[in-house]
């Protein structure tokens, strides 16, 4: 059975992709999925060679047949998003795809059509297959695109005999995060010792636990605020969450990204060894049953 590990963070900038790209380098038989579809950046490190492109269609949008339209104005007054303007033109950036205009039109002049909202790709990388995506600017339904990326990653894993999918999840706690963690075998939350880091850590842990997914935490940049790092550790202890890594701030991360390489490829220093230690603990956790994860550490 293919295991799935999702790496998330309550907020952006904690180092989530830094860890995920290094895990991809360390894993021996994995498919990588970049599910941060609003701001995908895994490709900058893995330098993929695309072999498959799929169009992504999000919400339907309204279109008006000007030949059938009687200019009664019912659709205009019924649209709470003010998406229908003069000249029987629909603003596709305002249209939310609710379909009210189609429902109320007495002349059947309005219909809902599929609108391309982005693309997702299958690629080869030096670490194995990568499924990644690009959502169009201002587009909705990021959670649906995340689900498409995960589905295709699962198919590739089955086809190529991989035993693990490593998912770089989006930040926050919204629909895209829910789509990235649902059904995963484990969630690793990468956090940082800042006020917003702690606040968002608590929120994202609540989301993962709502879906009964085992959680582990890694504190990145722990030395930027020792007091808050201790607070995170205390929170995790009280809530029976294993802290499997505490890594210092290190400029090596930036240097590695500039070179388009993962940290463990670029350097064998302390930060790299810290990531290797976290990966080793994750591998041990992933072979356990979900019910035994809390007791393991």
UniProtKB/TrEMBL annotation:
The organism sits in which domain of life? Archaea
- SUPFAM superfamilies named in the record: 4Fe-4S ferredoxins, P-loop containing nucleoside triphosphate hydrolases
Q: Where is the 4Fe-4S ferredoxin-type domain?
A: 60-84, 86-115
Could you state a single Gene Ontology molecular function term? oxidoreductase activity
InterPro entries cross-referenced by the UniProt entry = 4Fe4S_Fe-S-bd (IPR017896), 4Fe4S_Fe_S_CS (IPR017900), CobQ/CobB/MinD/ParA_Nub-bd_dom (IPR002586), P-loop_NTPase (IPR027417)
Q: Which UniProt keywords apply?
A: ATP-binding, Nucleotide-binding
Gene3D superfamilies referenced in this protein's UniProt entry, alphabetically = 3.30.70.20, P-loop containing nucleotide triphosphate hydrolases
Q: Please identify the protein, giving its name as recorded.
A: ATP-binding protein
* Organism encoding this protein: Methanolobus sediminis
- Where is the organism placed in the taxonomic lineage, from the top? Archaea, Methanobacteriati, Methanobacteriota, Stenosarchaea group, Methanomicrobia
């Amino acid at each position: 059975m293919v295991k799935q590990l999702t790496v998330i963070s309550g907020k952006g900038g904690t180092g989530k992709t830094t860890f995920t790209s290094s895990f991809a380098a360390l894993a021996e038989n994995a498919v990588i999925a970049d599910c941060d579809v609003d701001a995908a950046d895994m490709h900058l490190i893995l330098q993929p060679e695309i072999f498959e492109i799929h169009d992504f269609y999000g919400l339907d949008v309204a279109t008006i047949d000007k030949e059938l339209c009687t200019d009664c104005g019912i659709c205009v007054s019924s649209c709470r998003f003010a998406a229908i303007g003069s000249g029987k033109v629909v603003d596709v950036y305002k249209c939310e795809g609710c379909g009210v205009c189609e429902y109320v039109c007495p002349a059947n002049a309005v219909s809902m059509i599929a609108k391309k909202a982005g693309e997702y790709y299958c690629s080869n990388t030096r670490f194995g297959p990568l499924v990644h995506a690009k959502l169009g600017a201002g587009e909705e339904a990021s959670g649906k695109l995340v689900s498409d990326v995960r589905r295709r990653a699962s198919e590739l894993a089955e086809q190529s005999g991989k035993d693990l999918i490593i998912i770089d999840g989006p930040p926050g706690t919204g629909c895209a995060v829910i789509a990235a963690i649902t059904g995963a075998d484990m969630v690793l939350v990468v956090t940082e010792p800042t006020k917003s880091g702690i606040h968002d850590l608590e929120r994202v842990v609540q989301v993962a636990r709502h879906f009964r997914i085992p959680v582990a935490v890694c504190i990145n940049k722990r030395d930027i605020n020792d007091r808050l790092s201790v607070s995170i550790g205390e929170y995790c202890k009280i809530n029976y969450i294993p802290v499997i890594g505490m890594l210092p701030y290190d400029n090596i991360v930036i240097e590695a990204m500039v070179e388009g390489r993962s940290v463990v490829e670029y350097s064998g220093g302390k930060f790299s060894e810290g990531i290797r230690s976290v990966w080793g603990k994750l591998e041990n956790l992933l072979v356990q049953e979900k019910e035994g994860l809390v007791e393991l550490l």
